Amino acid sequence: MLNPKIKIAIAGVGTVGKGLIDLLLKYKNKQTKIEITAIASRRKQEFKGGIFRNTVFFSDAKKLLKFHNYDILVELIGGEKGVSKDIVFNALREKKNVVTANKALVSKFWNQLHSLMEKNNCLLKYEAAVAGGIPIIKVIDEFLLSNKITKIYGILNGTSNYILSNMLSYNKDFKDILSEAQRLGYAESNPKFDIDGTDTAHKLSILSSLAFECYNNVSKIDNEGIENVDLQDLEIADSLGYKIKLLGITELNNKNINNFVYPCLLSKDSFIAKIDGVYNGIVVESNFCKKSCFVGEGAGAHPTATSVLSDIISLSKKRKNCFKQSFKFSYQETSLQSRFGSYYLRFTTYDKPGVISGIANQFKTFNISMKSMLQKETEIGNSKDATIVITTHNCFESNMMKALKKINRLNFIRKKTVYFRIENFK
pTM for the complete prediction? Predict the structure, then answer.
């Protein structure tokens, strides 16, 4: 039997909140009636329409701590601290269901939130916290019924993907494309979390915790961003048959979990490499279904709001909430030092004899073998330098870092060596 009416309180009417209200104004479903009993918004806004007839408006979301006339709290403020945390934890303690798009909060307080759900027989839904309009949370949750997930990887941040795609397409530097992304609303005025990989790490923490039924703390995820990706490397990678993408990767390997976020080279023929612009792309590998691929808008008002509304409707159809334990296993999280894979290396050196042999000697010492090499001359001021690009066969990250430390001290090295990992995803 479906609930005839569901009462919701909305906290936060920014981009996603406005998108949700827009959808609710157009939403028509005889089986599920949604009533907005409260809206908390710092900004003074005008709300028109019959759905606001019985709505109470608050300028301070803290007022929701003492407001009880709702079935579902919809938290769209964001941030892992402050009022967003207070009202979410309070709602769960009050045995209310919660829908949120707050990846920072969910990833940091995964255990505490699930403990509250179990104790109070209520649910927190967070589809909108990862990949915008791609229903990846529901997919993973369903997979756990019949599939053992072994790996998830993909582009989880549309802003970084937009920047990398357009740097190459329009032959512009990082700062120029970032400014353009901010002007178009694809990047925040302070885009730090998008470009330094933090946003991707938050989302990866959630996906990993859900897929492997354990808590993968975001603070333990090795994380690198795209701030130092140079147009030159995008162009060279392109000439070698690769694209550079910022990926989040989580993989279960026996009793170990690899959780990594970094920009890497992918073959142009791979599924993920073909996803450009603000789109997200995710691949889920499992024992029975092998490989499932998903692509969609990773951000924006309506795509993200669609996931929020989907969670609201899903909760409205549950006559009695059922809690599903999702942190019952324990695994050891590995570090990047244990990674075994190939690399792209760009050396800036003096153009003189002995350079290649000097690099090769260090590679030999640390058991690293070259796969390909490209050399070209570049003019820097009045000196004539060389750019040497090498790709390697698989080796341990620990060995590569030791080799680069030695190489960067050699007297013919002009600049610190640029390196990117290469992932052989199809």
Answer: 0.91
